[in-house]
Amino acid sequence: MGNSTIGRRVVRCWSARRSAALLLALALLATPLAAGAQAGRATGLPLPRFVSLGADEVNLRFGPGEGYPIAWILTREGLPVEIVEEFDTWRKVQLHDGDSGWIHASLLSSRRTVLVAEDVRALRQSPDEAARIVLRAEPGVIGLLLDCDAAWCRVEIEGRRGWLQRSEIWGVLPDEAVR
After folding, report:
1. Which is the most buried residue in 41, 76, 106, 137, by most CB within 10 A?
2. Whole-prediction pTM value?
3. pLDDT at position 36, please?
């Protein structure tokens, strides 16, 4: 793989935590799930969904726990991964090459990135095949995902912003709207 005195203060503190938990639960309930998507058992967030590696060395394990052997050591912070299952604080992820395994949630980031797929791709100034080319990105280059429409995604690669066709990148669901 190429990869938180006594008396009233206690009551107020407990009440604040309870209120925060209630607001979080309501927000999760209000989050719409895409058609056919299911909610993760640990977080209530949609599955599948994309995140990225939040560290430059991450163990990909055969099961959800430190007792499981390491299948791969991933050494590329920012690499997009697709969460396909949740168990407690562990997330089962799939990589761009189809390999899968379990990663502790603390090693993942909600920062959205994409991976340039297969061939050299032209990052364009606007979402149009005839638009000026901002840069050419080789396969495996990671970009920061900014937003997507039906066919194009706006990304930032090495400080330059532009558009790539959705089909030219890995890290976005086919019908996902990103804003």
Report:
1. 137
2. 0.78
3. 54
- What does the domain layout of the chain look like in residue ranges? 5-111, 114-170
Q: Which two tokens stand for residue 12?
A: 């107020």
Q: Are 46 and 31 in contact (CB under 8 A)?
A: yes
Can you say whether residue 126 is alpha, beta or left, with left for phi > 0 and alpha for psi between -120 and 50 degrees? beta
Q: Taking the alpha carbons of 31, 46, 153, 92 in that order, is the dihedral positive or negative?
A: positive
Q: Which residues pair with 83 in a beta bridge?
A: 49, 93
CATH T-level assignment (fold) for domain 114-170: SH3 type barrels. (2.30.30)
Phi and psi, residue 100, nearest 5° = -140, 160
Computed over every residue of the chain, the mean pLDDT equals 84
CA distance 143 to 151: 17
DSSP 8-class letter at 178 = B
Q: Do domains 5-111 and 114-170 have the same CATH topology?
A: yes
The answer to which of 1-5, 95-99, 133-137, 141-145 has the lowest mean pLDDT is 1-5
- Per-residue pLDDT at 179: 84
Class of domain 5-111: mainly beta
